[in-house]
Amino acid sequence: MQTFSIAIHGGAGTILKKDLTAELEAAYNKGLEEAITAGYNILEKGGTALEAVTAATVSLENCILFNAGKGAVFTKTGTHEMDAAIMDGRTLDAGAVAGVSAVKNPVELALAIMQKSDHVMLSGDGALQFTKQQGLQIEDDAYFFSQFRYDQWQLVKNENVIALDHNIQTEKKFGTVGAVACDAHGNIAAATSTGGMTNKNFNRIGDTPVIGAGTYANNATCAISCTGHGELFLRAVAAYDVSCLMEYKGLSLQQAMETVTLDKLVKINGEGGMIGVDAKGNTSLVFNSDGMYRAMQNSKGEKQIAIYR
Question: Span 5-308: which CATH code?
Fold first, then answer.
C-alpha cells in the first residue's frame, strides 16, 4: 500500500519559546493545523500531490501570521512584492512568479503559469497582467496591511538594511511558507511562497521562485521546499542539491537533507531549513536554526505540529 503524506513549513529562524506568548503560539499552531489539514484532506480523498501542496500553501498565504500572501512584509518603498513557485515531480513541470503585488494567492498564480502559459517564470507587471487574464483574485493594499508588519518596517525603513527578522527586536525569522506531498499514486510535488525580506530594495528576489534553489520536485528523488536566508540557498542551489545527493550518491531523503542543511549550508552561514518528501511517502523536516514552524501528516497515522527545536 502506497503511503501518502504531506509536510508544511511556515518559516525558520531564531524562534524561541520565551519570545512567543501563549496566545501567539496557539495562533501559529492553529495556522499550521489548518494548513496541514487542508492538504491532507485532499490526499485522503485520492487527490494529487499537486492539489494538496497548492491547498496547504493557500491556507498559509491566507493566514496573516506568515510572511506570504496576506501576511507579506513591507518593502523599502512600503509596498508588497511576493514570490512563489510550484513543481510537479511526475512531469518536472514548474511555474514561478517573482516580485508580484496585489495577487491574493501567489501560489495559485505559479500554478496557472505552469499549466496555462508556455513559460516557467513571470515577474512584476507582466505577472499581474497574466493574473487578471486568468481571473485569479486580486486584492487592494488594505488586504495586505498588518499593523505588526507595518510596525516592524517602521523600525528599519530609514536604514539601509534588510531585515530577516520576524520580530526585529527579539528574533530572526525567515518568513516563507511551503508544502511538499506524496499522493496515493506515488507522485510528489512542492510549493513555496514568500513576501521576502522586510525593507528589501531594488526588487530583490530570493530563492523561493528559483527552481532548484528554494523549490524542487522529481518523482525519481524528492520534493523540497526551503525557508531561510535566500541569498545563501540560491548560491547553494539547496533544493536541487538534495535531489542530486539522492540520485548520484544514493543517499536517503533524510541523509541528503541533513547533508545540505546541517553541513553545506552551515559552512556558508546559510541559516534556515527545508521540508522534503520522497515517492515512498517518507517525510523529513530539517533545520539549522533555533526553530521552524512545521507540520507533517501521513496515512500511517503519524502527525506532528511543532515550532521549536
Answer: 3.60.20.30
Mean pLDDT in each 10-residue stretch from start to end of the chain (309 residues)? 96 88 95 98 98 98 96 91 98 98 98 98 97 98 89 81 48 81 98 92 94 98 97 97 98 98 97 97 97 97 96
CA dihedral 94, 95, 96, 102 (to 10 degrees): -160
Active site residues: 176
